[in-house]
Design goal:
Elements: E1 2-8, H1 11-26, E2 30-35, H2 40-44, E3 50-52, H3 57-61, H4 73-92, E4 97-102, H5 104-117, E5 121-125, H6 153-178, H7 187-192, E6 197-198, E7 216-217, H8 231-238, E8 244-247, H9 258-271, E9 276-279, E10 294-297, H10 302-305, E11 311-314, H11 318-327, E12 331-333, H12 340-350, E13 353-355, H13 363-373, H14 376-386, H15 393-411
Parallel strand pairs: 1-2, 1-4, 2-3, 4-5, 5-6, 6-7, 8-9, 8-11, 9-10, 11-12, 12-13
Helix pairs in contact: 1-15, 4-5, 4-6, 5-6, 9-13
Length: 412
């Protein structure tokens, strides 16, 4: 039995898919992941085959893909849909299911490939905030203007569907016509389906049931990481009190250059009397002086590291949020885009940290947020919540998926 997992997104999208892939392999399924070429090394060290999709995601995010920095969203969407379709169609024939998440145009291409091949398709969200519900409003999309007087969530989701049709409807239906598929009216609901998976922890990101969707909330898909920390990082950790980790993962910071952000975060942590551990990441955080209370690391095992720091300052990706929560590390989230404001709100509501106001931190604003997060009561609450965070989401999802495939085969 072969399953194809598809995402066009950052490490925060590819990591969970890798977690699911490993659980499927443990249940004797053959797995192929379609993802950006940036993550070939990640998948190679977990022995999960990769079919590259599209441009390198970091190059696209930073405007380094030739000819794409000034390209229209509709043009990029059209190419992503086609590239995802070609990648999935090339490996999914005869497979048991296609599971997709990430960039909406790419997921639409994956769904079209599954439909063309007659293969079952499952959409997955890593955050409740993406899924239509009367219990919460949609996240804003680029270029969407919502009248201030409109506050009813159902109406807002209707407007969201209209806006997504305007953004992607013509592009996706043009591609569908080119491969012999009929057009669809509701692009969002067609891609999301009425029975999606929700790969989010039910304590951190709970789903409130609604008759419109049959959501299977599995818990977060966590890829186990057994790598030891580098020796120089171990030496830094052993040389003093627990540092504050600051890293924004595969997320360029909006509205500020790397030097300004580095200076702001280092000064903020030092103001609170703490040592600083910088994760360089796509924000290119770097040292601002030669003081020995600050250290820079690249890509390391966060599952091991976060249990050994005083707090984690990050961008609010779903994966980093759940990793810090599992470790009992209080958090400051500096949200940039997408579902990150949702996670900032959730850590604040749960009392396990705080959300920074706005995407661009200053030394003063970040120091104020960090002061709340470093308070003893926040740490105590984070320790309590850590005991409730599930670690078996990928295992449950793999079992659900194989059960679905089995029932589909029996029905056929």
């Amino acid at each position: 039995m072969r399953v194809v997992l598809v995402t066009y997104g950052s490490r925060g999208d590819v990591g969970p898919m890798t977690g699911l892939a490993l659980q499927l392999q443990a249940l004797d399924a053959e797995v192929r992941v379609c993802a950006p070429p940036d993550f070939a090394e990640l998948l190679d060290r977990t022995d999960v085959p990769l079919t590259p999709v599209g441009w390198p995601i970091r190059a696209l995010a930073t405007g380094a893909v030739p000819g794409k920095a000034q390209a229209r969203l509709s043009d990029i969407a059209a190419e992503l849909t086609a590239m995802a379709y070609e990648a999935v169609a090339g490996v999914a024939e005869g497979c048991a299911a296609v599971v997709a998440t990430g960039s909406f145009p790419a997921v639409a291409g994956a769904r079209a490939a599954a439909e063309k091949l007659g293969v079952p398709y499952v959409f997955t969200s890593f955050s409740p905030s993406y899924l239509p519900s009367p219990h919460h409003p949609p996240r804003p999309w680029p270029g969407q203007e919502v009248p201030a007087e409109v506050t009813d969530n159902r109406v807002l989701w209707d407007l969201n569907a209209e806006h997504m049709n305007a953004l992607f409807g013509e592009t996706i239906n043009t591609h569908r016509a080119s491969i012999g598929l009929s057009p669809v009216d509701g692009i969002r609901d067609h891609v999301f389906t009425d029975h999606p998976f929700l790969a989010a922890d039910p304590v951190l990101g709970p789903w409130q049931e609604t008759p419109e969707l049959d959501v299977a909330q599995t818990g977060a898909w966590i890829r186990p990481d057994e790598r030891p920390l580098p020796a120089d990082l171990e030496a830094f950790l052993a040389a003093g009190a627990e540092p504050v980790y600051v890293g924004f993962g595969s997320m360029p910071m909006r509205g500020a250059n790397a030097q300004d952000v580095s200076r702001a975060v280092i000064q903020a942590v030092r103001t609170q009397g703490r040592r600083v551990l910088l994760g360089s990441g796509w924000a290119d955080l770097a040292l601002i002086d030669d003081r020995d209370n600050c250290f820079v690391v690249g890509e390391v095992n966060h599952q091991e590291l976060f249990g050994r720091v005083a707090a984690v300052i990050h961008h609010g990706g779903a994966g980093t949020t759940v990793t810090a929560a599992r470790a009992g590390a209080p958090q400051v989230i500096v949200p940039q885009v997408a579902d990150q404001p949702y996670w900032a709100g959730r850590v604040t509501e749960l009392g396990i940290g705080t959300g920074h106001d706005g995407p661009t931190p200053t030394a003063e604003s970040l120091s104020a947020a960090l002061k709340i997060t470093l308070a003893p009561e926040t740490g105590a609450r984070a320790a309590v919540v850590a005991e409730t965070v599930r670690a078996d989401g990928a295992e449950l999802a793999a079992e659900l998926l194989l059960d679905m495939i089995g029932r589909s085969g029996s029905a056929g």
